[in-house]
């Protein structure tokens, strides 16, 4: 979910909010936020992926509202079979693409020194979003802490293998066929953002970031 991270008690922006509108190119396609790219990476087929790609921001639309539309559409499509195992690496990939291509995001990230914290997205992503940002920061810093990067990557790989997946998402993170994002399909979030965020936090009580599709559909009406 969206919301910036903190470092040394200060909000780090731009660049640490997954819903923030910061366009970048991934696999030859323009995405508008790391959440936008993440949900596209989640899809197992090009038809569902294209529906997400086409969710471009409407005129005057706030980042939160666009992010919620993207997130909602991602829950409705068919996820790749190994998604629960590789979703952390996918979020890392989406965020690194965004940060590398937006100099202001990179500058803000490299200006930090301490650990990151996050709240409001449920136990799973409140833990992993700061981990991913620290990995990206140390990888992109000229004098980055290689030992710390190795330690955090080992933790990420341990999570994936515990979920039964030996192959890293990054080994075959190649472009799937995409259609041009030439139109918004008009999908919208019917519940208020606050209600959906509270629902998401309740669903993530187990700390694994998974969502029951029936509960999601009931919350949207």
Secondary structure topology:
Blueprint lengths: L5 E2 L2 E2 L12 E3 L2 E3 L2 H9 L3 H8 L9 H14 L6 H19 L1 H8 L5 E2 L5 H18 L5 H17 L30 H11 L9 H7 L2
Antiparallel strand pairs: 1-2, 1-5, 3-4
Helix pairs in contact: 1-2, 1-3, 1-4, 4-5, 4-6, 4-7, 6-7
Q: Describe the biggest sheet?
A: 3 strands, antiparallel
Shape: globular
**Spatial separation of the terminal alpha carbons:** 20 Å
Q: Into which percent range does the helicity of residues fall?
A: 40-55%
What structural class results from the helix and strand content? Answer: mainly alpha
Number of alpha- plus pi-helical segments: 9
The overall average pLDDT, rounded, is 85
Order of helices and strands: EEEEHHHHHEHHHH
List how many beta strands DSSP finds: 5
Over the alpha carbons, how many angstroms does the gyration radius reach? 17 Å
**Proportion of β residues?**
5-15%
Low-confidence stretches: 175-181, 186-193
Biggest β-sheet: strands ordered side by side in the sheet: 2-1-5
Note the main attributes of this structure:
three-stranded antiparallel sheet; two-stranded antiparallel ribbon; 5 strands
Account of the protein in words:
This protein has 221 residues and is mostly helical. Helix content is 50%, strand content 5%. The chain is built from 9 helices and 5 strands.
């Amino acid at each position: 979910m969206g919301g910036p991270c903190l470092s040394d008690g200060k909000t780090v922006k731009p660049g640490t909010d997954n819903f923030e509108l910061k366009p970048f190119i991934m696999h030859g396609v323009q995405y508008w936020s790391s959440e936008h790219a993440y949900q596209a990476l989640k899809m197992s087929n090009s038809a569902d992926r294209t529906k997400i790609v086409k969710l471009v921001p409407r005129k005057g639309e706030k980042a939160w509202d666009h992010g919620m539309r993207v997130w909602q559409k991602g829950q409705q499509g068919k996820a790749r079979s190994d998604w629960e195992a590789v979703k952390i690496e996918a979020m890392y990939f989406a965020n690194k693409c965004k940060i590398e291509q937006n100099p202001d995001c990179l500058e803000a990230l490299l200006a930090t020194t301490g650990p990151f914290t996050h709240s409001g997205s449920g136990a799973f992503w409140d833990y992993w979003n700061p981990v991913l940002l620290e990995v990206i920061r140390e990888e992109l810093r000229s004098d980055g802490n290689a030992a710390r990067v190795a330690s955090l990557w080992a933790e990420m790989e341990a999570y994936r293998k515990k979920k039964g997946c030996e192959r890293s998402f990054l080994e075959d993170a190649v472009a799937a066929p995409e259609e041009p994002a030439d139109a918004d399909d008009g999908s919208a979030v019917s519940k208020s953002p606050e209600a959906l965020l509270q629902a998401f936090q309740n669903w993530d009580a187990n700390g694994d970031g998974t969502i029951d599709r029936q509960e999601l559909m009931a919350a949207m009406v």
